[in-house]
Amino acid sequence: MTQQVSDCTTLHNGVKMPWLGLGVWKTKDGDEVIQAVKSAIQAGYRSIDTAAAYGNEEGVGVGIKQAGVSRDELFITTKVWNADQGYDSTLKAFEESRKKLGLEVIDLYLIHWPVKGKYKDTWRAMEKLYKDGAVRAIGVSNFHTHHLKDVISESDTVPMVNQIEYHPLLSQQELRTFCNSNQIQLEAWSPLMQGNLDNPLISELATQYGKSPAQIILRWDIQNGVVTIPKSINENRIRENSEIFDFNLSEDDVARINALNKNQRFGPDPDNFNF
To answer: Is there a contact between 87 and 125 (Cβ–Cβ < 8 Å)?
Structure first.
């Protein structure tokens, strides 16, 4: 299995995507996000995940430039926000994101949430951006199985990625099975349950493996074949989150963590959101 920070999974169109990335949700634009991005890249991260809705694409762009790593080594993700969904408005939103990030080509562009009545038109715009070479891969975020089936049934392109809330209390087994069978790479947001790491099993395994609870969970993500993007602005924590490539959880321990599932969300349900 994956043994170094820069290791990648291969998306169904052949594009390589790192298993580990830095998430920048709720990271302030300007110095805070610039420093987080630089710290991550210096620690060996090659993937940064932002979104138009985070309001920090400009800072991410500055951080990328200041980090001094060549552009073709990096994998940058951003997302179209709900208010911008629809065909023409998605194309316009993409241009805005590209300009703020200061990048010609985006590695991965995602539909942020499945806005009813709009996400299929949004997907057509994503397909155009992909065919035009403006993005290297396209995907979705927060899509349930029925949303994915809806998109797949009416388009030429199967999403390459589905970024969802995924952690030991919400392991989304049915959705994982569907994505695996359609070669859609799953990616975990809030992998660390927004800091709710106090769990007896996770603590026991952390002691057993000589790792932190966060490292146990991030390793579990990767061994389950799920890309993970923990968010942090703390340089030491960013580094610690990347130190998950020097050990393996046993199959039994992966299964024990899988069994913690309670279908418990810390974020909104994609079938029931109003933003």
So the answer is: yes
Distance between CA atoms of residues 106 and 259, nearest Å: 37
How would you label 122-132 residue by residue, b for 16+ Cβ within 10 Å and e otherwise?
Answer: bbbbbebbbee
CA distances to 63, 172, 175, 253, 259 from 206, rounded to whole Å, are 32, 23, 28, 11, 17
Unique residue bearing structure tokens 């990096």: 74
> Distance between terminal CA atoms of the chain?
39
Tokens read off for 161: 């990625």
Question: Among positive and negative, which fits the CA dihedral 68, 69, 72, 75?
Answer: negative
Is 112 marked as binding a ligand? yes
The secondary structure of 87-120 as a DSSP string is HHHHHHHHHHHHHHHT-SSEEEEEESS--TTTHH
pLDDT in tens, 95-128: 999 999 999 999 999 999 999 999 999 999 999 9
Domains within the chain, CATH numbers bracketed = 8-258 (3.20.20.100)
Tell how strand 16-18 and strand 8-10 pair up. Answer: antiparallel
Active-site annotation holds for 54:
yes
pTM metric for this prediction: 0.97
Check 45, 54, 109, 166 and give the catalytic one. 54
